[in-house]
Amino acid sequence: MLFHRRTLIFLLIDAVLVNLAVFISFYMRFGFEGTGKIPQEYFTSLTYNHTAWVATLVYLAVFYVFGMYNRLWQYASSGELVLIIFAATIGSGGTVALVYFLAPLRIPNTVAIYLWFLVIFLIGGSRFIWRILRENAFTPYVPGSQKQVLIIGAGDAGVVAVRELKKHNLREGRPVGFVDDSVKKQKMHIMGIPVLGTRTDIPRIVKGHNIDEVIIAMPSASGETVKAIIKICEKTGVDLKIMPGVFNVLSGSVDTTAIRQVQVEDLLGRDPVAVDLQQVAGYLTGATVMVTGGGGSIGSEICRQVIKFNPFKLVIVGQGENSVFDIEQELHTGYPSLNVATEIMDIKDRDKVQLVFQKYNPGVVFHAAAHKHVPLMERNPEEALKNNIVGTYNLAEAADAFKVKTFVLISTDKAVNPTSFMGATKRVAEMIIQSLDKRSATRFVAVRFGNVLGSRGSVIPTFKRQISRGGPVTVTHPDMIRYFMTIPEASQLVIQAGSMAQGGEIFILDMGNPVKIVDLARDLIKLSGFEPDVDIPIKFTGIRPGEKLYEELLTAEEGTSHTKHTRIFVAKPNDLDNARIAQIIQVIREHGSYLTREEIIQLLQTVIPEFRKLTAPKAVSN
Question: Around 40, how many Cα atoms within 13 Å sit in the side-chain half-sphere?
């Protein structure tokens, strides 16, 4: 009912304005020529015959057809102005044509031009006056409720940020200025707000204008640029927010709710990985896709990404019933029509694996189930053997038997020159799928990447818990560095690799420069509003068993070659000793739970000669 009432009001307003435009047009044509009035014959035709009501009906009909009564004019922009001009042009042409055939006198050419101009002026003016009133007269000033806001980036995203603040009646802050590195924009005004300087001027501007909050509105800027600006802003001590997703990657639509607190991911200093959607959709759409470890951090995100490509069925496999239940409920809520199946399964159970593959006959398998925590596997190496090696073999064997098209193993940079049981078992898992690929119709590939921010057991959740307790934040060594990526990036890389698979490859992501763990800790403390080593202490505890100071992405023998994706590389396959790999599988199946630590080391060294155990150094004092 509200929509119909609103439409009726606009129709009445437009009818009045169109009639006003008609009379003014005739008066401008004849009244300004000295007579001071419209000639009687034209006045009669205008009022008693056809001209006024024909114009009214034609214009209102054109406006309705062009959807001018289905728009929220408080958000009117140049697009709406073009629409009004186009509709007025069609309406004017229709009016002139109908009057020519219906009325005693045709409309003079000059009147037609005046009419076209006045309709645009009056109709367009009425719409934009409404927007001005909504943005100003209907946006009351609330004393004492506003923060002084500085916006970094005087482009489209910066304009969106200003509009977002105004839309909320400036309750979230009052924009006082822009910062932009473009020389052409200096001292210019955008939406009435001045450009106050470049990034080097940020400390001065913050101090001189009593800035309380900075919003970084630069969605197209490189990761390195964003990182540099964040570092500058951190020194000012003001609240820091960012708009990383103003333009939605998938649809290109504007997301004005993207203003959020700066997160550690924004400090990685590189651009996020993008997926080639057309290439990906080709092998997932209409396929039965199985994800092992589907309840875990990476596995569940792979499920979220896969469903975007309309698979025939998504099979979620996991050992933990709670995590599998959670992702199943989440997907059913967001995608009620999704064809999803769940299986609680231990991948070490060879018979169950065979039965599940027989039941669903998947075309694509993403294998994310693994024991991944280095210190925990140092204390339970036999479980790393059984799960990461035998479990992977069981799945790969079933994939070969049931003619799966593509099998993607999620691996780790810790598999390179491994010093931990976890890393060594994942390296053997890579060897298993490379070995099987040589004699199977299934395309077996592995994806190798570094630490995943926010995944279970990763440093970020651990640091956040420690900060919430008031510290200390524990770091193993001041020189420890790691490669990092986000959960969505890791999942997208896995999916992209599956589309590139020819068989036997190990795909590697260009993750930029490695990050010092202690720097990550300091950044997170600052983003939490504290000062490192003042409010929250940092304590060095020493390298744990199995850990390395520096992780690597390649062995010396592998090397890389480019792929069609600019951020993904493929490692050259190593020579494999298939007989020894088969022997390891047999030994673990027969004696896995009873192997001693020394026997496990010797067993792994049969295929990874360089595998040696590190003796953890003593804790490093601050």
Answer: 0
For the purposes of burial, counting CB atoms within 10 Å of the CB of 579, is it exposed (0-12), middle (13-18) or buried (19 or more)? exposed
Determine contact, residues 436/444, Cβ cutoff 8 Å: yes
The residue written with tokens 């001590």 in the block is 237
19 with 115, same domain: the answer is yes
Picking from 448, 530, 531, the residue whose alpha carbon sits closest to that of residue 485 is: 448
Is residue 75 within 8 Å of residue 131, measured between CB atoms? yes
Is the Cβ–Cβ distance between 506 and 437 less than 8 Å?
A: no
Tell me whether residue 445 is in a domain.
yes
Burial readout 271-304 (b: 16 or more C-beta within 10 A, e: otherwise): eebebeeeebeebbeebbbbbbbbbbbbbbbbbb
Which H or E element spans position 367?
A: strand 364-367
Other CB atoms within a 10 A radius of the CB of residue 183 amount to 7
Q: Backbone phi, then psi, for 309, in 5-degree steps?
A: -105, 20
Question: Is the CB of residue 443 less than 8 Å from the CB of residue 407?
Answer: yes
Task: Please identify which of the residues 348, 386, 414, 548 carries the catalytic annotation.
Answer: 414
Mean pLDDT of 215-234: 80
How far, in Å, CA of 565 to CA of 273, rounded?
A: 10
Q: Which of 453, 594, 589, 421 is CA-nearest to residue 520?
A: 453
Work out the average pLDDT over 144-154. 78
Token pair, residue 50, equals: 């056809």
Domain boundary among 137, 162, 188: 137
Tens digits of per-residue pLDDT, 473-522? 888 888 887 767 777 777 887 888 888 888 888 888 766 677 788 888 88
Task: Place 593 in a pLDDT band, splitting at 50, 70 and 90.
Answer: confident
Q: Are strands 193-197 and 443-449 parallel, antiparallel or unpaired?
A: unpaired
Distance from chain centroid for Cα 518: 27
Query: What CA–CA distance (Å, rounded) separates 427 from 425?
Result: 5
- Are 39 and 106 in the same domain? yes
DSSP label at residue 74? G
How many CB atoms neighbour CB 543 within 10 A? 20
**Structural domain boundaries, residue 345:** 277-452+483-510+552-605
- Whole-angstrom Cα distance, residue 53 to residue 32? 24
Average pLDDT over residues 273-289: 77
Burial class (CB in 10 A: 0-12, 13-18, 19+), 351: exposed
Tell me whether residue 227 is one of the annotated catalytic residues.
Answer: no
Confirm whether pTM is higher than 0.85. no
The β-bridge partners of 475 are 540
User: How is 30-71 classified by DSSP, letter by letter?
Assistant: HGGGTT-S--HHHHHIIIIISHHHHHHHHHHHHHHHTTTTSS
Please give the structure tokens belonging to residue 330: 């989440």
Q: How many domains does the chain have?
A: 3
- 3-class DSSP state of 365: strand
Query: Which is it for strands 515-516 and 481-482: parallel, antiparallel or unpaired?
Result: antiparallel
Query: Under a CB-based contact definition with an 8 Å cutoff, are residues 188 and 195 in contact?
Result: yes
